[in-house]
Amino acid sequence: GDGDLDLAVANDFLTPQKLLINDGTGFFTDESAARIPQFAMSSSHCAFGDIDDDGDLDLWYTRGGASRFGSGQAQLWINDGAGFFINGTAQLLPQQLVSEPMDCIFGDLDGDLDLDMIEGHRAGNSKLYINNGGFFVDATAGNFPPDSNTYSYDLGDLDGDGDLDVFGANSGVGSREAVFQNDGNASFTNVTSTVLPNSSNPNIDDNDSKFLDYDNDGDMDVTICAIGGPERMLRNNGSGFLTLVGGVISSISDSSLDVEMGDLDGDGDLDMVTAQGESGAFRNRLYLNQGPADTRGPNIAQWEELDDVDVGAGPRRVRAAIRDNMSSDHGAFYQSVLLQWSSGGPFESVSMAWSGHELYRGIIPDPGTTATIEYRISATDLAGNTTTTVARSYFIGAPPSLFQRCDINEDGERNIADAVAGLVYLFGNGAAPGCLDTLDCNDDGSNDISDVISLLDYLFQAGNRPPEPFNCGSDPTDDAVSCETT
After folding, report:
1. Which of 41, 171, 204, 434 could lock onto 178 through a cystine, CB 3.0 to 4.6 A?
2. Which tens digits make up the pLDDT trace of 84-124?
3. Which of 234, 269, 231, 267 is nearest to 250 (CA)?
4. Which are the contacts of 193, defined by CB distance < 8 A and separation ≥ 6?
5. Can you give the pTM of this predicted structure?
6. Sheet containing strand 256-262, strands side by side
7. Third-level CATH fold of 299-396
8. DSSP 8-state assignment for residue 382
9. Which CATH fold would you assign to the domain 402-474?
10. In angstroms, rounded to a whole number, what is the distance separating the alpha carbons of residues 221 and 349?
């Protein structure tokens, strides 16, 4: 929480995992022993994400057996806010062994602005976990298609309908790629044969993929890094249909295990870095983009609409899903993501914190008084393109008065003394009740003799019970009489 980027490392072959802390100048110190659970396990991937909406980043680790190719229980470690992690696996995750977990990626899959999880398994039977208030439910059955030999999954809105679809490297039949389409509620359909025909989906051993808009036409294309051949680019036609395009990436055959995107030369487009392993010269590659610069502002796909509240309700949290011309489990990269608000004057702003994948979180301070608050979100990407939403608003009002119907003298009881107090006020020039709503015994929005009759009927003739609030509470009826009426 000090504003700089730290580094979590997934280690294989029954070794403790690593957490390296940035001192703010780019130097990292191994503080694993003090900050994260220390026990021998085999992991192939880890991911940061604020799973419990408390403003700090938690950690998910895949876990295999004697190696990442064995079976184990996924791990979820909870941040205490100061960067020290407690093992919450037993309390927050389904207790089940999974086989050969290779990847894990957070994303808001059901559109409720919290982080769900997909784990990709090389042995098949990958898992879909839905976040329910910080507790994860295995929702795989009936919602996530069968897969096989998965090395990685990536999330992006392939078909432009506003939700996150899934692209799986090696997840399809015969080590082909797979595309799973989201219905918006985290139920996925395998549409590979429809949107990615075999002519653009060769049987090649691939390890990773990334969504990106390489041609700046406003839709998400896909790049693939391969062990069994050169890297490849799939172009989106705008409706989610992918076609293999040649001549976009230099044709170099090497053993690529990972791919990342970023504007490395500052010219406004996305360059590509691949990491090598398993065979060959183990020479990592940098591919510079010679295509069009990014001229499109970020897409603020979803953001929270706040209800009216009472004075003293406290600061208000605002969450948003923000997308740019790339998708990554590390988040896109922006010059700024700002939550802006006003209570009548100029807009003030605060930086929104990254919560995982494409989610951001900001806080509007409590003004401590009655006010109408306008708020909006403004995001600027690394190419300098800015998107600002239209402002929304919510009202902060006085809390409702609490009273007990027919307790006219406000002594906590209903008896003949209340009827006398009502009659003295109505006909004897007596003092008004402290809350005139207590005298509105029949809740008709006026104070008159019928209210006293209603009370006497209840007390002595077994009449109807006075309307709510019978016990101390607020008036559910919006009428002309209230505790503030004089």
Report:
1. 171
2. 999 999 999 999 999 999 999 999 999 999 999 999 999 98
3. 231
4. none
5. 0.85
6. 256-262, 271-276, 285-287
7. Immunoglobulin-like (2.60.40)
8. T
9. Type 1 dockerin domain (1.10.1330)
10. 33
